[in-house]
Fold:
Amino acid sequence: MNGQYASLLIALPLISAFFVPVFKGIGKNAVRYFLILVTALQTGIAAWVFKEVYTTGQPIIVIAGGWKPPVGINLYIGHFAALFVLIIAVVSLFMAVFSISAVKTEPIDKYAMLFLLLMLGATGMIATGDIFNLFVFMEITAISAYALTAYNKTGEAAEASMKYIILGGIGSSFFLIGVALIYGSLGTLNMAQIAQLAATMNPTVAQVGLALIIFGLAVEAEIFPLNAWAPDAYQAAPHPITVMFSAFVVKAALYAMARLIYLMSDVGSWNSVLRMLIIMATLTVVVAELAALRQKNVKRMIAYSSIAQVGLIALAFALGTQAGVDAGVFHMINHAVVKALLFLAVGYVAITLGGAEVENFKGLGKKMPRTAFAISIGAIATVGIPLFNVFWSKVRIILATIDVGYTWAAVLVLSASVVEAVYYFRLLHTIWFEGEGEKINESFVIGLMMLFLAALVVVIGVYPDYVWELARKAGEDIFNVTQYVKNVPLMGVGA
Amino acid sequence: MISVYYFGAIALILIGLYAILIKRNLLKILVGLSIMETGVNLLLISIGYVSGKSAPILSEGIGPSQAVDPIPQALVLTAIVIGVATTAMALSVAILIYEKYGTLNVEEIRRLRG
Structure:
C-alpha cells in the first residue's frame, strides 16, 4: 500500500473531532462510543504503519501537497515515530474505554474533542519533520492539555490549569525565540536541512538557540525547574487524561528534545548544551523523588515518581552516545506501560472509593484485590526489581551514564531510586497489611486492561530482548542523523 | 547585522517576563504573557526584514528579488493565532478561578501545595 496513507494518522483525529457534535445529537453515550471507534481506527492505522516501517526497514515520508521539502512540509515516520505512534494510539484506545466509567462531568462532547486533539498533537509532534510544525503541534497539545486540566471545574483544577498555562506560555515563547534564531542563521525550518547546515552555524547562536528550545520543551517534558505545574495538573485532571499526560504527552516533548539535540550535533558548542541538560535531568530525578516521599495523595505521589522517571530518560538522551539514546527509548516504552497501569489502577480506585488519598488505600488488598494486585505490579516494576521491565532499562541507563564518565550523575540517580523504593513499599504496606474491608465488585473491562498491561510488564521483564531490539532500532533513528538526512528527499534549493 | 528592531523585540520580551514574575494580579500576569508573545513575534518578523525592500506581494515592479523573506511573516500569523487561543483559554480559566476563590491575587490561590 501507499505510504502516503500514513497522513491519516494526523487527519483522522482532526476530522473526527469536528464530527463529535453530530454524534452528540444522537445521544450522550454515542459520543463515548464514537471516541472508542476513532481511537480503535487510529490504532489500526498505527499498527499498519508500524508493520510497514519495521518490515521494510525504510521510513515513511509523507510529503504534504506534493511539494518536496524544504519548500513543502513533510512528515517523517521512521522507526521511532512508528513505534510511538502505535503506543499513543493503544493508550488512547484504553483511555477512551476507561473514560466511559471515569468521566461523568458534563459536557462530554467537549471532553471527546479535546481528547482527540491531545492525541493528535502528540502524534504530530512525533511525526513531523519541520520545526515550526513541531511548534504548532506542541501548542495544539498544550492548549488541549490546559483545557483538559481545568475540565473538572473545581477550584483545584482551575488553579492547576492556570499554573500550566503561565509556564507553558513562557515555554512556548522561548521555543519560538529558539526557532527564530535557527531560522535567522540557517534560513530553513526543515529538520533534515538544519542537520545538513548545522556545521555552518555560529556556535554561540546555535548554543543559545538550542538552549532556548530545550527550555521551551522542558515545560512539556517536565524537567526541573520548569515542572512545577505537573504534579498539580496530574492530580486535578480527569483520570484518563492523567494517564495520557504521563504515557505520551511528556514522551512526545522528550523525543522532540532529543531529536533537535542530535540534529544539531555538528554545532561547535554542542557539548556544553548536553552538560546543561545532564545537570537539569539529574536534579529532576533527585528533587522529584524527595518530593514524592512526603505526599499524602497517591495520585500526586505517582505523578512525582513519573517526573523522576522522565528525568532519567532525559539524562539518557543527554549522554550523547548511541547506548544512552537506546537505553532512553527503552525506558520510554517501559515507563509508558508501567505508568499507564499505575494511573489507570489508582484512577479506578479513586472513582470507586471517592478519592486518591492514602486513607482510601487502607485495606485495598481485601476490598479490590485485582486492582491492588495491578498497583503492586506497577509499583514493584517502577522501583526496578529484576524480572520486571523497568529494571532492564534502568540498568542500561546507569551503565551508559558511567561509560561516558558521569559517575556523579549515576550515583545521585541510584540513591534517588532508594528513596523511590521507600515510598512505593510504604504504599504496598498500606494496601496489603493495613485496614479491613468488604470485597467490592470490580469492573471486568478495566480489570482486563489492567491484566493486559501487567502481563506486558512481566513479559518484557522476563524476555526483554524483543522490545530491546525495537528500542535499539528506534534509538538509532534518533542518533543516526546522517541516515535521517539521506532519507528525506531534499530539493536542491536554499543553503 | 544587528538591527535596532532586535532591541525593541528583546525589550518587549523582558518587560513581559518581568510582569509575569513580579506581578501579583492574575490579569496583569496574563497581560505580561501577551506582551512577551508580541515581543517574540516582533523578533520573528525582524529576522525576515531586509532594509529597503517591499512586502512579499508580487505586483508591478516588485519581483522576488525586491521583496523581503515571506516565511517569517507566515510564521508570525500562525504564532499570533496560537497566542490568541492561549490568551482566551487563560482568561476563561481566570474567570473560573475568580468564581471559586473570590480573588485574583496569586498569593491567595494556593490550595494545591507540596
Observations:
- The CA atoms of residues 43 and 295 of chain A lie 36 Å apart.
